[in-house]
Every structure is written in C-alpha cells, then in structure tokens.
Specification:
This protein is elongated. The protein is mainly alpha-helical. The chain has a two-stranded antiparallel ribbon with strand order 1-2. The chain has helices spanning about 5-15, 25-40, 45-50, 65-75, 85-95, 100-115; strands spanning about 120-125, 125-135. Strand 1 and strand 2 form a beta hairpin. It contains 6 helices and 2 strands; from the N terminus they run H-H-H-H-H-H-E-E. Helix 5 packs across helix 6 (about 100-115).
C-alpha cells in the first residue's frame, strides 16, 4: 500500500472515531475501521465504493444476522476468554453492529443451545453473571 493511501486511511479512521470517548472501545473501533479501510483498498473500483454497492465476486460477504455476527466474533477468537453479554455488545458495536441487550440475550442462548458457545454462571463481587466462551 502506498504511503499516501495509508495516511488517508488513518485520517478517515481518526475522523470516524473522533466523537467517541477515549477508552478501549474507541481504540477497538479505530482498529476495526482502519483495518477495514486497508483491506478494502484496491479491491473494488472507486465508482463502486462511492455508490455504496459491493461486488460479490471475490469478496467475502459480511454477516447480516446477529447469530452470524456473533459466530464471526467466535471465529476471530473473541470468546477464548469468558465474556459477559455487555462486553459482547460492546465488541459488536465496535464492528458497527448495534443491538440492544434484550436481542443479544436470546441470540446468545440459541448459540449455547446449538453448542456453538458455552455459558457459565460466574460470581463478580456480590453479583452472579452469565459469561460466554468457546465450547
């Protein structure tokens, strides 16, 4: 990748996360946006990128359903450590996928039922919370 294109991708990624509060979520969001910009550079003609349409030839389709999106996180190794539903929601948001906790709870339970994920009740201080991990 040319230095000018890399610099331009960095500037776009910085502008994308500029209104977010500093912290790990902002860092992750920057990483995801920056990686996406770098990976997408040169794959499609500029006219297609500007129009918002994607070529299905040679490009991996982005998951559309919440179940598929959580499964893609699992495939990336996100669930190597136990994660609470709130942390799962934050990671999905970092990828640009926004879901309320009420939607994710049923989706995560369905993945546990299919044995795609494992669920364990863990005590955090005085509270007991469910944590999800790889089976």
């Amino acid at each position: 990748m040319k230095p000018d294109a890399l610099r331009q991708a960095r500037i776009i990624a910085e502008k994308t996360v500029a209104d977010m509060a500093d912290g790990p979520l902002k860092v992750k969001a920057f990483e995801v946006v920056f990686a996406r910009l770098i990976n997408d550079s040169g794959k499609a003609p500029a006219a297609e990128k500007m129009s918002g349409r994607r070529s299905d030839v040679g490009n991996k389709r982005e998951p559309q359903a919440a179940t598929d999106r959580i499964a893609s996180l699992r495939d990336e190794g996100f669930f190597k450590l136990q994660r609470t539903i709130g942390v799962v929601r934050d990671e999905l948001q970092a990828h640009g996928w926004h879901y309320p906790l009420t939607t994710l709870s049923g989706t995560l339970q369905a993945l546990v039922k299919r044995r795609s994920l494992r669920r364990q009740r863990v005590r955090e201080g005085k509270r007991a919370v469910w944590k999800y991990s790889n089976p």
